[in-house]
Amino acid sequence: MVVQDGEFARRQGRVHPVPGRVWWHAVVGWRYVEREGEALGGRGWRAGAALVAAALCGALVAGTGGGRAVAADAGRAEVAVRLAASSVIAPGVEYRAFSVPASHGTAYGHLLTADLTERRVSVGLLTPGAVAAREPVSRMAVALHAVAGVNADFFDISEAQHPGVEATGAAVGPAVSDGVALKAAVPAGQRFGPPLPPGTSTRDVLGVGADRVARLDRLSLSASATTPYGTVRVGGFNQYAVPVGGVGVFTSAWGSASRARAVCGTDSDRAAPCGKDGYEVVVRHGRVVSGSPVPGSGAIGRDTVVLVGRERGAAVLRRLRPGQPVTVRERLVARSGAVPRFAVGGFPVLRGGQPLSGLDRVTAATRTAAGVGGRGRRLYLLVLDGNAENGSGLSIAELAGVMRQIGAVDAVNLDGGGSSTLVARDPATGQVTVRNHPSGGAERPVPEGIGLFSRS
Q1: Which of 25, 60, 70, 371 is at 20 to 30 A from 445, Cα to Cα?
Q2: Quick one: signal sequence residues (predicted)?
């Protein structure tokens, strides 16, 4: 099945039709034709169209009837995906629009594909310069010279349950930029976003290693504070929530936001009241300089770390006195053993080409997702237009199906709704522009994004 792109453009209401171009239909239940594990695209789209059309004919002959292809495994909530012809953003980076007829109506979206075998292409963290800060994706992309990017992890967007406490804007999961760990994951009960699928964690990430291979991984915090009274396990690293009874460390990467949120909620209930038993210790050049029963705010110097404890952790920190030595060590440990150069949090929806069990099939929303194909050498970044308030959008189960259809073997769901944003450089002007329609008509400031970079 093919559709003239003028028809699709008119549905989009924003793309000018180009006569003679054709869109091809990835039929429900089938993957695109693959070559060495990678979804066919770009130069191979015509061959893909022919083979998919042949598959469609076979389905109709087999008796699916009514001129409509039906998935053999429809229970997996997979959907048909219409992809536009791609446009080259930079060597190894392509952009295209797509449409998805789904359970709540047709959703429209945008897709970036990065070929990591292209040595000029790299993947990096878009950041406003601090963990607890937010900026629009487009602004971060321009400032860091990315050619394209999308928003990333869910984040601490509101503290309505804790009057008087400032929302930090910090992300839920781990973050790594240029090989440097910036933060670890909050406890599962403290996260924002839809429920986690069974077997997943706030520690799950999408990462890219020094080997230039993208993969789904899990980053766990290994940290400690050595004091005159012994070594204390540290359970938080630049996190907006410290585990109950634990100690968290804040570094200069945190920024200037208040640390008061760190002692609010519990490991199982984000909305639980703020703890009354907290304590903060400031350590500069390896020695205690001050302590306070109230977590503070303000920039943290590069020669300084701040320890925040709650309950039992607070009791440990209260023993420390100015001048005493304290040594803090922290690192993120990857379950795969691969050291990431880049990583962002996101919960898995697709592993080994199979959607995870327990994915929500009912609630449709505007989505952002990232997927990996081609044995880790192809990265897919997907964002829907922000029209879920009108009844369209995708369920999490449908999103997993779409990611599989476009060629991903593994995929994570990222922050959606008003956060969903995809930007890409305009080849004609060189300017980075927003390609999707964000909910509410404007970009939402977010704490981080996935950036695609291309060396000249």
Answers
A1: 371
A2: none
Show Cβ contacts of residue 50 under 8 Å, excluding neighbours closer than 6 positions: none
Give the SS3 label for residue 434: strand
Contact between 94 and 113 (Cβ < 8 Å): yes
Nearest to 340 by CA among 167, 214, 220, 168: 214
The 10s digit of each residue's pLDDT in 122-168 is: 999 999 999 999 999 999 999 999 999 999 999 999 999 999 999 99
The 3-state secondary structure of 252-291 reads HHHCCCCCHHHHCCCCCCCCCCCCCCEEEEEEECCEEEEE
Structure-token match 């369209």, residue found: 392
DSSP 335-362: TTSPPEEEEEE-EEEEETTEEPTT--SS
What would the pLDDT profile of 260-319 be if each residue is shown by its tens digit?
999 999 999 999 999 999 999 999 999 999 999 999 999 999 999 999 999 999 999 999
What one-character-per-residue DSSP string does 90-133 give?
ETTEEEEEEEEEETTEEEEEEEEEEETTSTTEEEEEE--SSTT-
